[in-house]
């Protein structure tokens, strides 16, 4: 444990930020999994709403810097492709 006041504060803030980042990243992964599950089950209505939620969560994670913006775009594109193949 650090002795310097600023270092102590740094540890506290980094722990708080880490906890927040973990929750955002976890909710993003959950949203993506729900969308993929709805697509596999061929439930079009549920898949569309789950896809919209997943896209939102991916954008939020990319905006916060948790994942790269290109990674978010790639995941959204792949989800959209799966969703469109379900409709076709």
TrEMBL record:
GO cellular component: cytosol; small ribosomal subunit
Cross-referenced PANTHER family: 30S RIBOSOMAL PROTEIN S20 (PTHR33398), SMALL RIBOSOMAL SUBUNIT PROTEIN BS20C (PTHR33398:SF1)
Species this chain originates from: Bacillus infantis
Protein known as: Small ribosomal subunit protein bS20
Keywords for the protein's UniProt record, in alphabetical order: Ribonucleoprotein, Ribosomal protein, RNA-binding, rRNA-binding
Gene3D superfamilies attached to this UniProt entry: Ribosomal protein S20
Keyword Transmembrane helix among UniProt keywords: no
Function: Binds directly to 16S ribosomal RNA.
MF GO annotations: small ribosomal subunit rRNA binding; structural constituent of ribosome
């Amino acid at each position: 444990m650090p002795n310097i006041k600023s270092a102590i504060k740094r540890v506290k803030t980094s722990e708080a930020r880490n906890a927040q980042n973990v929750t955002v990243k976890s909710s993003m992964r959950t949203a993506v999994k729900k969308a993929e599950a709805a697509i596999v089950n061929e439930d079009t209505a549920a898949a569309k709403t789950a896809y919209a939620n997943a896209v939102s969560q991916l954008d939020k994670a990319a905006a916060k810097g948790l994942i790269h913006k290109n990674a978010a775009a790639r995941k959204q594109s792949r989800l959209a492709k799966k969703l469109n193949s379900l409709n076709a």
